[in-house]
Write a structure and sequence with these properties.
Elements: H1 11-27, E1 38-41, E2 44-47, H2 52-64, H3 74-77, H4 98-107, E3 113-115, E4 120-125, E5 130-135, H5 138-146, E6 150-158, E7 161-166, E8 171-176, H6 185-210
Antiparallel strand pairs: 1-2, 3-6, 4-5, 4-6, 6-7, 7-8
């Protein structure tokens, strides 16, 4: 577009440019090379994958190119005021924090936020094990939270938007948006980015509003039943 002065790139030209780019990238790479689509929007880079390996590779390549980059998470933007210590959750990946788990817990107390009540999917951590809940999860979810479990991820509704939120990483592993249908894919892409950015904007504002509550960790209940590994609700 910059070279030709054309207002947009047509689908045939875009396909040809993609093939040329893939050919150039793969010519000097090992057979395991994969092509990931990404999109830059201001200071944010959206990556069309939630695979940890790919995200880490993209971050490494950005830093090698001299770009200062890190995972998107509010506790990385400034020094956290809340205590990140936990004897239940031990973050293993860069950018992860138990603050995300506590944020999701207090986020569920907001009136416009709720766990998917019928086809739910929730992962928690207790002192004994990781726990997965599916289906009608509300009763068991709040029982575990009252007993001191940390919520790792959940399928939730924030307003009218349904998403799978990875609390540890502050990452959207799934997102259902309103359909867009325009005359050109570039307009669709702009609207999609606006929708995704809006979702992160809501989460960021919620984190700012609720961060003072993140130190209010519920007391740990004494479990009288024997330890278990997996629980499920249906």
């Amino acid at each position: 577009m910059e070279t030709t002065g054309a207002p947009f790139v047509g689908s045939k030209t875009r396909k040809k440019l993609r093939e040329l780019a893939e050919s150039e990238l793969c010519s000097g790479q090992a057979p395991r090379t994969r092509i990931l689509e990404c999109c830059i929007d201001g200071t944010l880079l959206y990556v069309a994958s939630t695979a940890k390996t790919y995200l880490g590779t993209v971050l490494t390549l950005l830093r090698q190119a001299g770009v200062e980059a890190d995972f998107k998470a509010p506790w990385l933007d400034e020094a956290p005021e809340a205590d990140e210590a936990s004897d239940i959750v031990l973050p293993k990946e860069p950018g992860q924090s138990v603050l995300g788990c506590r944020f999701l817990r207090v986020l569920l107390e907001e009136p416009e936020v709720m766990v998917e009540p019928e086809t739910g999917s929730v992962r928690l951590a207790t002192r004994e094990a990781k726990v997965s809940l599916t289906g009608a999860v509300l009763h068991d979810l709040f029982r575990f939270l009252e007993e001191g479990a940390e919520i790792l991820s959940a399928k939730i509704h924030v307003g009218t938007v349904l998403m799978r939120f990875d609390a540890l990483s502050y990452r959207l592993n799934g997102l259902k948006l309103e359909p867009v249908r325009n005359e050109h894919w570039t307009v669709d892409l702009d609207q999609r980015l606006e929708q995704i950015g809006g979702v992160f904007g809501v989460l960021d504002e919620k984190y700012k509003a609720l961060k003072d509550k993140l130190n209010a960790v519920p007391p740990q209940a004494v479990m009288e039943e024997p330890p278990f590994e997996v629980a499920a609700a249906s």
